[in-house]
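User: Please check token order:
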Amino acid sequence: MKALPLVVVMLLVASPVLGAVGPVDGSTQAAALDQADPAQVQSPSNGTIHVLDIPSSELVQATVEPHHVDLGPSLDFAALQAGGQIQTGASIERIESAADDSTRQQLILDEINSIEQRAIALQSTQRTAIEQFNAGELTARELLVRLARIDAEARGLNERRVALHELATETPDFSINSGRLAALERELDTFTGPVRRHVVSVMTGQSEAARFSVRTSESGVVLSVVADGEYVRESFRADLRDRDQSSVTYEEALDIVANNYPIIYSSRAAQNGTNVISAGDSHRVRINYNNGQLTAYVDAGSGQVFKESQSRPLGSISTGTAATEIKDGLRLTVNRTYPGGPLRIQLNETESDAPVDANVTIGLEASQESTLLGHTGADGTLWTVSPSSPYTITVIRGNSAVVLTTSPTPIPDLVTNATAENDTSAMGTSTPTDSTSSISAVAQGSPAGAPAVV
């Protein structure tokens, strides 16, 4: 469906029933009303949820890497965090100790310039890490560690950005362009993601060991993991960006996401279900829906979704296409999924259908090695991420064993970056009301043609 025309957005902002809308990081904010028709809400499954992934023709590397607590990277992450905090503290102290307001203003600007330069360096670091992994110069573990370091540094730089903005607001007769600060935040977003953050959590011992799916193209990377009862994925495609252009408005960005993720969009929450933030050369569209959350980044030049993160509770995921093997009184069911998708393994007794707790291993068809996944537990269920190639699941309980060889399914509904002109009939209807606000759009600094609303 189409986003509300901007003139409607502006009128609704003025409506007293919405209450006061304050500035975000010095930027202007507009609120639009958009309520999902309950009759149109669909229950998403991994057969209908669109994902931003890498087409098979562009795939360079694909693997699943088990990770656990690791002292080396753990100390490295701790040092990185401590170093960032020390540098931020030193910067703040230097600014607050400035002899006069003019010096204080210059120090703030110097610090912001420094963060912007570091963001440019992180682009190069990320690109080099992907290229080295593709060339076999980095292992999957080493790539994950590097991406996690980039994530940690980007988050630290953003914290410094926020602190500098606060200092700027406290400085007499001084302000920093809100669009510049917002654009810097969006740029730093490019290097962060929920899967990268979980890598840090696992390696520092804050979370249990996990298996991470890693898929790369020449300049893109897709990561996924099953953690804390959720399936989490993130993807980044540098090839879908066009930094030389900036013509897509935040309204168009919402339309683009609605067209590319129709089931998620039609399932969005009635209250505060959709949020759009426009800054720099991208738009961030976040949708909270019945069974999860989507954050999609639309490039303001190409008009394409170039970055995505999704999280979905395991209990909301469809079991998908099943492959079953029965032997020695055991029934092994593998609900197949796409490469890097949420893979469910179920073990039951054949006669009573009672769940069975047993160890599970997985091996790739092209390899003679198997990896212990864990055990099925009291409910007989084990979740993991799917390999990108044929694999064998083996379960052993005492003298009984069952083996199943199968393959991943095709990637479901790969995001094709459909334009707003495509048919949107599957997305339901939107009816403005006086009490329900499910879309908030933040036009920060009007970077991509979005007028400031005051």
Remarks:
- The chain is about 30% helix and 25% strand.
- The radius of gyration is 24 Å.
- Residues 101-134 form the longest helix (34 residues).
- The first strand starts at residue 30 and ends at 32.
